[in-house]
Amino acid sequence: METVLSGIRSTGNLHLGNYYGAVTNFVRMQKDYNCYFFVADLHSLTTYPTPEDLHSNVKTVLAEYLACGIDPEASTLYVQSDVPEVSELYLLLNMNAYVGELERTTTFKDKVRTQPDNVNAGLLTYPVLMAADILIHRSHKVPVGKDQEQNLEMTRKFARRFNNMYGVDYFPLPQSFNFGKELLKVPGLDGTGKMGKTDGNGIYLVDEPEVVRKKVMRAVTDAGPTKENQEMSEPIKNIFSLMDIVSTPETIDHFREQYNTCKIRYGDMKKQLAEDIIKATDPLREKIREILADDAYIRKAAGMGQEKARASASKTLREVRQIIGFKPF
Ligand code: TRP
């Protein structure tokens, strides 16, 4: 069975885009692949060196993924800092990573621009830590967004370099996992592009119904169609795309018809969309709340993940040490 791995940022709640765009696919993948999902809390230190809420952020992420259907028995769901083997592999890989290539990474250059007062060595070697995350389980596939493609390319480079340097065929070269036609694009509420974390664009799974209503009612629209079957503007297409995800076919047909005959009232459509979003996310919101209140369950899930992750990681590290030439006396 192939191994799939995904790292999850430890800051920020899941929004509808994360859920329908990625997490539902993770849930489906669990039975076809050997899945590793981990919370990248070490990586967060490159940007938030002294996070007051490090622990609670990690807890929230775990609770949200569990609530969405990640099964801690079927998959390995763990916290990056719970697996010290990752840090040792990171150290070893650092010896074969060149400063020049790290400095040329887009994500590094972005950070130099956005946090000029904290250009730390961890930022420079961020792709090496990411490679360690991936290679520690000798992963075959990694589902990543466009912004992480280059980091994954670096992982392949480090894996290839390790294999060549020691004349082994040890690390598989991880490929980006493509959800293909299953990849659902979830648009945001501000009329442009996909749902993200920027203000006024996203709806979080934990948003209370009143918050969902307020956000949806503020979604960008246009002046309305003036002739029958008029081509839709981007913001209107987006609202229909969201309806495609959460509303019934009858509701969607109804509003399409209203649009095509120029009778549509965007206020009514948004009211309906808000209620349909609330209905779709209600069970998740409930479940997240329930899990967050159940420390014993989270502890058990994370403990089980740590145990499975360390078993796999220590095996890799033992073999890597041997390949490099460390020997016990
Ligand atoms: N860098 C990723 C992000 O910002 C998170 C991440 C860390 C990751 N390690 C990973 C993703 C390993 C995939 C594989 O989203």
Describe the structure.
- The structure is a single chain.
- This protein has 329 residues and is mainly alpha-helical.
- It has two domains: 3-184 and 295-324, HUPs (Rossmann fold); 209-289, Tyrosyl-Transfer RNA Synthetase (Orthogonal Bundle), CATH 1.10.240.10.
- The chain is built from 14 helices and five strands.
- It has helices at 16-29, 41-44, 54-68, 84-94, 99-103, 106-114, 121-124, 126-135, 149-165, 209-217, 234-246, 249-260, 266-292, 295-324; strands at residues 3-9, 34-40, 76-79, 141-142, 175-176.
- A three-stranded parallel beta sheet has the order 1-2-3, with helices on both faces.
- Helix 4 (84-94) runs parallel beside helix 14, helix 8 (126-135) packs across helix 9 and helix 10 packs antiparallel against helix 13.
- The model has no long low-confidence stretch (mean pLDDT 95).
- Tryptophan binds at residues 5-7, 9, 40, 43, 130, 133-134, 142, 144, 148.
Structure characteristics:
Rossmann fold; 2 domains; 3-stranded parallel β-sheet; 329 residues; binds tryptophan; Tyrosyl-Transfer RNA Synthetase; 5 strands; mainly alpha
